[in-house]
Amino acid sequence: MQVTGVVLAGGQSSRMNFNKAFANIGGKSSLQIILDKFHKIFAETIIITNDPELYAGYTQRIETDLFPRRGPVAGIHAGLYYASYDTVFVMGCDMPFIDTSLIAYLVDQLGKYQAAVPEIEGCLQPLAAVYSRSCLPVFEYHLQNDKLKLIRIIEEELDIRVVKEEELAQFGQVKEIFLNVNDAAALQKAQQIARRLL
To answer: What is the pTM of this model?
Structure first.
């Protein structure tokens, strides 16, 4: 796929006592599980992090935020900025169970929209979504003006294709697919899912 896959590994992992990117799930880190999928399907994979030394050797391209420590808005902005392709799939480093066929489906939904964003139980999932590089000026404007509410940007500033839960369900159990492994309870649940899926 002529798409850039971007993994955001800039979070503080405040609910875990270790870096959630390296949470061990079925014998591999969450980050490695995601990268293995990205390397299979994308022409380019980039890790965006403010601690690049932690990720040396994981993938060819490791980049840092242009607006450091500004959260996921800065991470998505950096991914769009550094991407070699106009279509960019962005994902957090703590979602190991997303399926490559679902990623391909989301990419197909982008069309002329600025983003294709899954919605689960009425909540958008901007950290498992496809963006066009045409979004870059929007994210840059919000960072320059310190407007960092990601959902507000997605809902109010971008022309988006919302991918509904019933569409996502054809790829498996939606709550499992989009599980964020960001605390001890989620990690325990992920271990159980991994025994079944991975």
So the answer is: 0.94
